[in-house]
Amino acid sequence: LTAYSYCMQHGLFEGSVVTVAAGNVGSGSVVCELSMKHTPYITVTGTSATVTVGLGTVSGNANDPIHPTANDHFIENIFVVDQNDAVIAMSELSATTSPPSLTFDIPIGTNSMRAYSLCNKHGLFAGNTVDVTTTTTEAQMCELTQCLPDETGVVDGRCVLFDVIATDCLVQQLLMHGTSSPFTPDATSELSMKHTPYITVTGTIARVTVGLGTVSGNPADPIHPTTASTDPTLVHYIRFIYVKDQDGVVVAAVSLTPLSALPYLEFEIPAGTTTLTAYSYCMQHGLFEGSVVTVASKNVGSGSVVCGVTHCGGRWTLPVSCPLFDTTRANALHQHMISQQVTDPFTPDTTSELSMKHTPFITVTGTSATVTVGLGTVSGNANDPIHPTANDHFIENIFVVDQNDTVIAMS
């Protein structure tokens, strides 16, 4: 096993190769599901269906796992697709939604369903396909599911997670593009018009899309593409969208993946808002700022900032494999090449404190392996360095490859 850790400031670090003895090898194969704790299960009752997460929610066995809900570990999203791979139900969740679940009426014309759950730490998990024998007589309803306010994630009226996303985008902008400011709209540049975020307001709901073609109605105008690839030079997608109000407070944000075919963010405009400015972060081309949008009083909602996002269905094309592993590794390599001006990860250097602080170490216990970052996590010496965690300096990804360079685990 060889572990890798990606620091958003200092780049990609490779650990030493760890030889695995035969007695420490498990009996399973590499799969996207980290455990049955993350798998979504569908239960059908009449013409309604409920999705829960974790084997213990349906097995009746108290020893079977159920996905936890904590401020730093929760299910962000549950959605269900039918036999045509069309999304027929979706719910956006938060760290206050416990236990995570989704209940919906099965739309007419549905023959089979498959549920997906997105964990904020461990990625996207697919359940088994469930055949459908009875449905409602109603067509699919595209209904918004509002997140519950995550009060524990709000400090002085600001969502901590939102601020972390905005700070991370600015740090990457400086490291990868040499400027601490976002790129502003330039109507003469196709690159700018493809990456600029646009806000449209309908009632008290604001929607952000990326690319002039999403709002102009002109098919010749550019829309930002989404390209999932294992090649760090080809992978290309919008990683973050966030919105600030007139006071510079981030009032909405979303973290996206290459599975988000048309990147967007939709939210209710918080009370007291007079202007909104959208930002989109492309993992290849950087951070782009949209034009300031003035919000009329009639379009302002009555609620406060919600530490979560709201989405509405659409169609998702989901690959059979686990693309989050490969595309995340490709993204880490791409950022490393741009920000550090080298193509290969940094390897362990015991003479360098920077290296020892960032190097990932593998510890094997039975058939389980744990990766930690920094020599101090394994040496037992209090003087040895451990990587810090702060809003502007933290480890974004950890992944492990086997002897065939296949990613077998990722966080």
Largest sheet: 5 strands, antiparallel
Structural class per helix/strand content? alpha+beta
Residue stretches low in confidence (pLDDT < 50, at least 5 long) are 140-152, 309-322
Give the helix tally.
7
Helix share bin: 10-25%
Distance, first to last CA: 16 Å
Indicate the proportion of strand residues.
25-35%
Mean pLDDT: 81
- Give the strand tally: 24
Note down, in words, how this protein is organized.
- The structure is a single chain.
- The chain is an alpha+beta fold and 411 residues long.
- The chain is 15% helix and 31% strand.
- The chain has helices at residues 56-59, 160-177, 190-195, 213-216, 323-340, 353-358, 376-379; strands at residues 2-7, 11-14, 40-45, 48-53, 75-82, 87-92, 101-105, 112-119, 123-126, 130-131, 154-155, 158-159, 197-202, 205-210, 238-245, 250-255, 264-268, 275-282, 286-289, 293-294, 360-365, 368-373, 395-401, 407-410.
- The strands form seven sheets. Strands 5, 6, 8, 9 and 10 form a five-stranded antiparallel sheet that branches.
- Strand 18 and strand 19 (286-289) form a beta hairpin.
- Helix 2 packs across helix 5.
- It is globular and about 60 Å long.
- The two termini are 16 Å apart.
- The relative contact order is 0.17.
